[in-house]
Amino acid sequence: MNLQLIWRSIKKEAETIRNDHSILLVLLVAPLLYFLLMGSTYMNKDEEKVSIGIVDLDQTHGSKAFLNKINATQKVNITRAYTNLLEAKSGLSMFDIQGFINIPKGFEKKLKNNESTPIGLVLNNTKFLSSNDINKAVNLVVLDYALESRQRFFESKGINPSFAEIKANPITAQIHAVFNATNNYGNFLLPALLFLILHQTLLIGLSESVASDRENELMRVGFGDSKNNFLDYLIGKTGFYLMLYMAYMVFTFLVAFPFFDLPVKGSFFSLFATSLLFFFATILYGWFISSFFKSQVRVMEVMAFTTYPVFLVTGITWSFKDMPLFLQFISNLIPLKPFFGFLKKQAIMGVDTHLYLNEIVHLLVLLLIGFVAAFLRFRYMQRAPKSNPSVPLPLN
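Request: output the structure for the sequence above.
Response:
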């Protein structure tokens, strides 16, 4: 490798970026803007006091005590009281509430007689996170309230309070939530979103530059500047992007994660080292794909179009093994797939090193595939005839 040639090419690429407002916007403005936008959206991480309504047809001390317990939970807030089911369904349809509880007449009487006392819970599942919160809160109160009711019933039969408690609740479940103990959506989604932003802006910015070189017949000039040495050309062309995004990576872990109160339970060394592999693999793939385009606008459209599909097929939002086999195959070719797995295990879960070695090996394999593909493409483009013979090549 010729370090002098590489440094000259890096400075030349930086100058190209500085003069191209489109690339400059993608590389320097978009990451910070999207970080602020996405991070602020999920800053609270969890939805609290979800609005629900009630239809209390019993209107007794027992039904009101039951509803007060539900209203005292952290997740839900009773904001509307309806006189009948039709009114409640109308409120649900108008999004005044996210669900409602229907307490039938005779609720308290059946409780005192230790009879089955069904209540109705109607949820708006178009917001499944809110409906899950309501469902969980109501069911916990139902279990607690049913336990107290059974215990009082047994005590009324002359059973000792200690034995009445055991008889009322013979089986107890001890639930210990780990890794995401608060069960919030922000800690689950935000780390992946932040790196998706970096991944896509890196791909778009680099691809625009490579396609611009082809569009303006400058690709061969770059080959000539590096004296047709693949490593000198590749590092010189992409070195600025790698340095910039490693700086973004440091900013993400040391500034963005603490600011949004995201967990980093593993070592920073392994995070930085694996992130370097991830960005380098992304750069190789980006250069290879964009080298087939001769229009800067077209390649930007294509790369921007991939953002949402890429995010979905990586398995971050849906079980990977439950996706169709052809999507699993495609996903395994994308560096985001193993990196998201590594990020979840290392940063969020803080598991031992051997439990994420498969993800690191996967990244190394994709890095090798990307390197070979880029090298073969480089050699092919060297041998291909010039499309515009009037553009002179630099003298070696």
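The domain at 50-168 is CATH 3.40.1710.10 (abc type-2 transporter like fold).
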